[in-house]
Write a structure and sequence with these properties.
This protein is an alpha/beta fold. The protein has one domain: NADP-dependent oxidoreductase domain (TIM Barrel, Alpha-Beta Barrel). The chain is about 35% helix and about 10% strand. It has ten helices and nine strands. It has a seven-stranded parallel sheet with strand order 3-4-5-6-7-8-9, with helices on one face. Helix 4 links the parallel strand 6 and strand 7. The radius of gyration is 18 Å and the shape is globular. GO terms for molecular function: oxidoreductase activity, acting on the CH-OH group of donors, NAD or NADP as acceptor. It comes from Scophthalmus maximus. InterPro entries: AKR (IPR020471), Aldo/ket_reductase_CS (IPR018170), NAD(P)_OxRdtase_dom_sf (IPR036812), NADP_OxRdtase_dom (IPR023210).
Length: about 290
Amino acid sequence: MSSSPSSTSSVLLNTGVQMPLLGLGTYKLWGPEDVHRAVDAALAAGYRAFDSAAVYKNEADLGRALRELLPKYGLTREDVFITSKLGPKDQGEKAMQGALHSLSQLDLDYIDLYLIHWPGTQGLVVADQRNPGNRAESWAALEELHSQGRLKAIGVSNYTPAHMRELVQTCRISPAVLQVEFHPRLCQAELRSVCAEYGVCFQAYSSLGKGELVTDPRVTEVAKNCARTPAQVLLRWAVQQDVPVLPKSSNADRIKENARLFDFTLSDMDMDRLSALDCGHKYCWDPSEVV
C-alpha cells in the first residue's frame, strides 16, 4: 500500500459526507510563509484536510495558500476538507457574525466543517449561567448557515459528556463531529460512548500529548518493535480506532512522516499496551470546568 493517505482513509459523517482520517492541524502556524510552506508539504504528502480556527488567526493565510497550491497538485476546492471554529469571543449573539467572518477570511463559498471551539464564553466566569444560553444561540446560528449550505457540517470542540447531552436534547440538527484532546493517557471512554450513542464522529487533537508522549518508554518500545516513529505509533493508535487525527507541524519532513499511517497496523497487544496508559491526564484545557 502507498505510504500516503489513500482515498478510502476517511470516516462517514452523519451528514453523508466523508471526512479524511488525517488532517493537518494549523494551530501555531502563523504568517503567510509558514502556512504556505506547511500546506505545500501536506498536499505533497497526501493530506486532504486542513483544520483552522478563528483564534488561530491564520484563516486568511490558509485560504490563500490553498488557492495558490491546489492547482499545483491538480486539485480543486472540492478535493479538500476545510474545518474552522467559532471563537469564544463570538459565542452567543455574535455567532452568526463570527461564522460569516471565518467564511470571509478563508474566502470560501462554504466550509466543510464548522465547530463551536469552546463551551464557554470569553469574558464570562466559569459559573456564569449565561454560558448554556450562549451555547444554544451559537448552535442555532450554525444550524441556519448549515441550512443555507454555507457550512456543510457543524459540530463542537472541547465539549464534555454533559455539554453533549445538553446539545443533542435541544438541537434541530445533530452535531456531526466532536473534536477533543485524545491520546493513550486520555482515552475519553465516556465521551466516545456518548458520541457513539448519538452518531457523532469523535475526532482527536493533541494526539502526541504536546510532544510529551513521544518519549514515553512504552510508546518508544512499541515504535521500535514495529520500526516506526513514536509519533506514527500514537497517530496510528487513534486511526486504527476510526478516530480522525490532526497532527500539527511546520516541518516538511515531519508532515510527510506523520502521514505514513496507512501502510502498517498495530497488533492487538500493542493497541492494548498503549491504551493501558490511560490515566485521565489532560495536557490542554479542561472543559469540565465550564458549566
